[in-house]
Amino acid sequence: MKNKMIQSASIIGFACSALFLAVAGCSPAPAIPPKEVKIQADDKMKFDVTAFEVKPGQKISITLTNIGTTPKFSMGHNCVVIDRNVNLQTFLDAASMAAATDYVPKDFKGVLAHTKLLGPNEADTVVFDAPYIPGEYPFFCSFPGHYSQGTKGTMTVKQ
Fold first, then answer.
1. Is this model's pTM higher than 0.70 or not?
2. How many domains does the chain have?
3. How does strand 80-82 pair with strand 111-114?
4. CA gyration radius for the chain?
5. Residue 30: is its pLDDT beyond 90?
6. Would you say residue 80 lies in a domain?
7. Average per-residue pLDDT in the chain?
8. Is 123 among the domain residues?
9. Residue 12 lies in a domain
10. Measured between alpha carbons, how far is 79 from 63 in angstroms, rounded to an integer?
């Protein structure tokens, strides 16, 4: 009798586990399609895209195109995405001294992604994964003076 009860309990437990897995789903969650963002920068020091939303962990592809005509040494553009906890002014101060690395300080902690510095009619694409922590993450051109003139935007990570 005791063995039959243990056997019955085992079968019920197995059945309940199978039912739970069927309801909860055994297969992985559907993959989130990549987010493609195309941004243009111009001689007026503006991005044509100033905000976009992504899901936590979503793959992001940002393509920056410089549609301006002014030479790169005086009006180059890049697109830098930083963590929301980075002190923006500290980053911009360090970036202003980093001409050799396209105005992105080498080994600066908190840089999520960046394009290269672009001259007229040049484009560059950077691919990265969105942070898992929801919130607002700044993106901007780190060429000296461009952020303050409006070459900036916000990437919002949202469930």
1. yes
2. 1
3. antiparallel
4. 24
5. no
6. yes
7. 88
8. yes
9. no
10. 9
